[in-house]
Design a protein that fits this description.
This protein has helices at about 25, 30-35, 80-95, 115-125, 140-175, 180-190, 210-215, 220-225, 265-285, 290-305, 310-320, 345-365, 390-405, 435-440, 440-450, 465-475, 480-495, 500-510, 515-525, 525-540, 550-565; strands at about 15, 20, 40, 50-55, 70-75, 100-105, 130-135, 195, 200-205, 240-250, 250-260, 330-335, 370-375, 380-385, 425-430. It is of the alpha+beta class and about 575 residues long. It folds into 4 domains: about 5-155, Udp-n-acetylmuramoylalanyl-d-glutamate--2,6- Diaminopimelate Ligase, Chain: A, domain 1, CATH 3.40.1390; about 175-295, Beta-Lactamase (2-Layer Sandwich), CATH 3.30.450.30; about 325-470, 2-Layer Sandwich (Alpha-Beta Plaits); about 480-565. The radius of gyration is 39 Å and the shape is rod-shaped.
Length: about 575
């Protein structure tokens, strides 16, 4: 005799707030066990759910059934005929019955061994659970208990549905984030849940105790093999993922999936569908798909820049799930926008967003991928994947050249890269094969972008530290009191008198390395006039301009002074009121 209580599946225990009534669960009732049940066939299907319990002794039972019933019978009309018994079981299978429990007892209440043999032969090889009872039981008691369980299950599902509805309604009213909705869904299902966009990039996820790296491993590749469903459900059987589309009809922007098996698909589908609706409402309330992707990328970039927050394996796995393809190297990039005259913070933010969208499109056209995040108002950072270090400069030149040339002259976004016309500057840090090291390089890229933004003429599409050289060093030290003291000591008399003409002449002289012929030609000065001006300047400064070390010191001081007035929020040590061209 089969001991039904040895199984952990199909029992009457609650599953996430609902009860599952199965054939196995009903066979485990005391009322049925007293009949000494023996399973003749379909043992693998004992965990099939039961919709109702029906008593039938007629050989032609099919018209009485709708599917999912457990049929109780004494077999009076077919117990003596193998053919009739076979037809009875055929009808049950065709009607989609959950199973059959047949009591075969003679008039004296003893097992009808001949009838059992007939039924055993008719049941052989069938997938339908067929159970024989050899002791008399009260069918009415079985139906009463079973129906009480079934009604209880239905009421539990209704209560569960009400509770799920309240949870997601409250989340919508509170304006909950997508991540919070996904977290609550995973909690209700006790299973991992992933929200992805139509490009299979992970926008939010909750592993529900599962290893995050394992959950997101090759996510895009695995997800592509799971076709989209227009409605909540699985595409092809239980081996597929349970999913629900997210977005308004005909404008789907993603889907919510449970990439694993579940104890009750019907219950989980109800939760998943309500979660999908809550996510759709969240977007309709003011979020869009790109914002959500940026939000997800920003969260990852924040973690990447925190010491010891992630290891390299987890960082790469999460980045790939967000669309960053595996690459040999990753380049840290920072784009800094100049503030236009009279521009308010909102206008700057709109330009920043438009430029970022153009950069994303340009990188996609170049068949590369990147992660991007806003750093502060007017600048954003990115990690760009490159296949090889020797291809890095060519790829950057192509991307930012195309970006600059694609902007219409005179537009509010303005053109970048031309002489004096650039309204944004690109700083590039050192590439690395480590994603974490590349993310740490965003700080250096930010410094380069800030320094390059002070250049009077920006001829390059992008800048590295090697491109800004001495100016870069001084920019990094511009707030150092010691550098200020040095510069003011070197240029002291000229700064005190605010002699812009003398400063301009000194700059011209230093630019030509003290070559008097070149200075006279460029400055349209006669030789006597040039020598006289040099002599006066040397007297005021107290140094010889023929001395290379003196010229170097003055060049550093003058460069620092000029840069002070080109950095937002800073002024030259002594700003001249007028320029003497004499």
């Amino acid at each position: 005799m089969l001991d039904f209580r040895d199984s952990n599946a199909g029992h009457q225990a609650e599953e996430h707030g609902t009860r599952t009534v199965t054939v196995r669960a009903l066979l485990d009732l005391d009322e049925v066990r007293s009949g000494q049940p023996e399973v003749l066939s379909g043992e693998d299907a004992l965990d099939a759910p039961v919709r109702w319990v029906h008593i039938a002794d007629s050989e032609r039972v099919r018209p009485l059934l709708e599917g999912g019933e457990l049929v109780l019978s004494t077999g009076m009309s077919f117990r003596a005929s193998p053919g009739a018994a076979g037809r009875f079981l055929d009808d049950l299978e065709k009607a989609g019955a959950a199973g059959a429990v047949i009591e075969l007892v003679d008039a004296q209440g003893r097992p009808d061994t001949d009838a059992v043999a007939v039924l055993r032969g008719a049941a052989a090889g069938r997938g339908l659970p067929v159970v024989v009872l050899t002791r008399t039981i009260k069918f009415v008691r079985v139906t009463q208990v079973a129906h009480r369980l079934l009604v209880g299950e239905q009421l539990a599902r209704l209560e569960r549905g009400r509770r799920v509805h309240e949870v997601f309604t409250q989340l919508s009213l509170e304006g909950a984030s997508e991540q919070r909705i996904v977290d609550r869904t995973a909690e209700l299902l006790a299973a991992a849940v992933v929200l992805e966009d139509v490009a299979h990039r992970v926008l939010a996820f909750n592993p529900a105790g599962m290893d995050a790296g394992e959950l997101l491993r090759d996510w895009a590749g695995r997800s592509r093999h799971v076709g989209y469903q227009k409605e909540t459900g699985r595409r092809a059987g239980t081996g597929d993922w349970l999913q629900t589309p997210v977005g308004v009809r005909d404008r789907r922007w993603g889907r919510l999936v449970v990439p694993g098996e579940l104890p009750d698909d019907a219950d989980a589908a109800q939760v998943l569908e309500r979660a999908g609706q809550a996510l759709t409402l969240a977007r309709m309330a003011g979020r869009d798909e790109q914002d959500l992707l940026q939000q997800a990328q920003a969260g990852l970039m924040h973690d990447l820049r925190q010491p010891h927050a992630l290891d390299e394996r987890e960082a790469v796995t999460r980045a790939q799930a967000l669309g960053l393809e595996p690459s040999a190297f990753y380049v840290p990039i920072v784009v800094r926008l100049d503030r236009l005259p009279g521009e308010d913070p909102t206008g700057l933010q709109l330009r920043e967003r438009a430029l970022l969208e153009e950069l994303v499109a340009t990188v996609r056209q170049a068949r590369r991928s990147m992660l991007a995040v806003g750093l502060h108002s007017g600048s954003f950072g990115a990690l760009l994947g490159v296949p090889a270090r020797q291809l890095e400069d060519g790829l950057l030149e192509r991307i930012f050249g195309q970006l600059a040339e694609g902007r219409e002259a005179g537009d509010a976004g303005a053109r970048g890269g031309g002489e004096g016309a650039a309204t944004w500057t690109v700083g590039v840090g050192r590439s690395s094969s480590s994603l974490l090291e590349a993310a740490a390089g965003l700080d250096a890229a930010t410094q380069v972008a800030d320094i390059a933004a002070t250049l009077e003429i920006r001829r390059r599409r992008y800048y590295r530290f090697a491109d800004v050289r001495l100016r870069g060093l001084l920019a990094a030290l511009r707030t150092d009191a010691r550098v200020r003291a040095f510069a003011e000591a070197e240029l002291g008399p000229l700064l005190e008198e605010q002699d812009a003409g003398a400063l301009d002449f000194l700059e011209l002289y230093l630019r030509h390395g003290g070559n008097k012929s070149s200075v006279a030609r460029t400055g349209y000065l006669s030789r006597p006039a040039l020598y006289a001006r040099v002599a006066r300047l040397q007297e005021r400064l107290g140094v010889s301009l023929d001395d290379a070390e003196s010229r170097a010191a003055l060049h550093v001081a003058l460069l620092w002074h000029r840069m002070r007035g080109q950095v937002p929020g800073e002024e030259p040590a002594h700003a001249p009121e007028s320029v003497d061209q004499g």
